[in-house]
Amino acid sequence: MVRPFEELVVEHGPVVWRVCRALLGPDDAEDAWSETFVSALRAYPDLRSESNVRGWLVTIAHHKVVDQARRTNRAPRPSGDLPDIPTWDHQHDDGVELRTALEALPTKQRGAVAYRYLADLSYFDIGVLLQSSEAAARRSAADGIANLRKTYLKGAPR
Amino acid sequence: MITGTVTDGQVIADLTATCTAPDGAGEMEALRSRLAGRADDEGLLDVAYRIVDSPIGPLLVAVTPQGLVRVAFELEDHETVLARLATSISPRVLRSGRRTDAVARQLDEYFSGRRRRFDLTVDLQLVRGFRRAVISHLSDISFGATESYAAVARAIGNPAAVRAVGSACSHNPVPVVVPCHRVVRSDGTIGQYLGGAEAKVALLALEAAPPDRGMPGG
After folding, report:
1. B169 a catalytic residue
2. Interchain proximity B12–A117, CB inside 8 Å
């Protein structure tokens, strides 16, 4: 039996949202989320294996995030690059410090942190997305968390 | 100097919390609704569905671009029904209010006694051959009337096929809208029903004495 597409949206929609939201501002994140699921819906009847649907969706989301950032910034970028400066809605958010810290991360670290900790992808898959090796992806995620911890501590003493 | 009271685990937990929508459920609902709209606009919505509340329990209604393809009772298990539709029609199945509005509205009117005849295009792609001939005949049985399985068999020119008519009725993909509940046994007992005997009794009672008999003027 084939799974109705709606089940994929319900199951993986929140993960894709978190990834889009970590890498883009709120409006761009909404557009990237929609674009991701419209593309997935178009390709779904031809999807061979349903073994790693989350990885498949996050991969599509990665490309949509890159496209969206390119559209918003208008400046042409080499493909595979994540946006440099997402525009957070600082005024209405509680997690401002953490977001500011996330913004400040180098793009590979930010991507690695989002794909590892928000999307739960393997380092091998993250390496493919970020066009680096599995070991480099692992390092980027660890460095990213270490950097976040440092800036986060500075911004929010407790 | 600040000591390291924040652990990696806390940073990760805060990150997950921060990157969730402020109003998680509502935001996701809005995104889903927008997705269904876009899918429809781009011709990617092969099967649109929604659940309609009714006096005989929640009904799943599914619509293709050709028309209403399925009405399913809770007894049939809606999840299983959707998986079958995904397998036999298309996996491009999404919940959509827009595409199912007309069906939902007409069902509401029917159950509140304000509608006697459904004005909907029905997609009978799930039934073929003899069964399809039976299902097609059922819409000729008018609101409040009943017909026996034997009479239906005669009407479609196959008087010996009484059992097969019964079987066709129990496989009606669009019950309520295509009124298989109006087909009863020759001895007057009500016979079987996919939604359960109680549902069939309730539908026949509703049609015998609609809750609001005064039709709105005009």
Report:
1. no
2. yes
Residue B50's beta-bridge partner residues?
B61
Show me where the domains of chain A are located: 5-155
Q: For all residues of chain B together, what is the average pLDDT?
A: 90
In the predicted model, what is the mean pLDDT of residues B112-129? 95
What does CATH list as the number for A5-155? 1.20.140
Look at residue A152 in the predicted model and tell me its pLDDT: 73
> Can you give the residue range of the structural domain that contains B189?
129-208
| C-alpha to C-alpha distance for A132 and A82, rounded to whole angstroms | 13
**Cβ contact B93–A4 (<8 Å):** yes
**Would an 8 Å CB–CB cutoff place A2 in contact with chain B?**
yes
The phi, psi pair for B96, rounded to 5°, reads -150, 125
DSSP per-residue codes, A99-154: HHHHHHS-HHHHHHHIIIIIS---HHHHHHHHTS-HHHHHHHHHHHHHHHHHHHHH
Looking at residue B22, its pLDDT comes to: 52
Tell which of B6, B16, B18, B80 to mutate to test the A interface (max A CBs under 10 Å): B18
Q: How confident is the model at residue A1 (pLDDT cuts 50, 70, 90)?
A: confident
Considering the domain boundaries, does residue B86 fall inside one? Answer: yes
ipTM: 0.87
Q: What is the CATH number of the domain that holds B171?
A: 1.10.10.10
Q: How many domains does chain B have?
A: 2
